[in-house]
Write a structure and sequence with these properties.
Number of domains: 1
Largest sheet: 2 strands, antiparallel
Structural class: mainly alpha
Shape: globular
Number of strands: 2
Distance between the termini: 29 Å
Number of helices: 4
Strand order of the largest sheet: 1-2
Helix content: 40-55%
Length: 99
């Protein structure tokens, strides 16, 4: 991945972490509009660094147990889905166009 893409993905992590903890109304509004389901492809788990909970088969060891809040709520908006696409994945979630 190019350096500018890596920085973009890293700033997305910071944006999501901030939103989850300090913009709860925004997050709630976004999640109420979100459609689809997680395909558990592991793409979002490898943004800027590989999550230590991800197995070699790209499965999350703590998926149904104790995932961090920012992981459980991913994606928060279309920007997150665009990041997955930028990294070569296809997110199972979507947001209505007018949202």
């Amino acid at each position: 991945m190019k350096a500018n893409h890596t920085m973009h993905i890293f700033t997305g992590k910071v944006r999501r972490l901030f939103a989850v903890h300090f913009r709860k109304e925004y997050v709630a509004r976004q999640l109420s509009a979100r459609e689809g389901e997680c395909h558990q492809c592991g793409t979002c788990c490898n943004f800027s660094f590989a999550c230590p909970m991800l197995t070699r088969r790209k499965l999350c060891l703590v998926y149904g147990l104790c995932r961090p809040l920012s992981c459980r709520l991913f994606p928060l908006d279309q920007k997150d889905i665009d990041d997955v696409t930028l990294c070569g994945g296809t997110c199972g979630y979507r947001f209505p166009r007018e949202h």
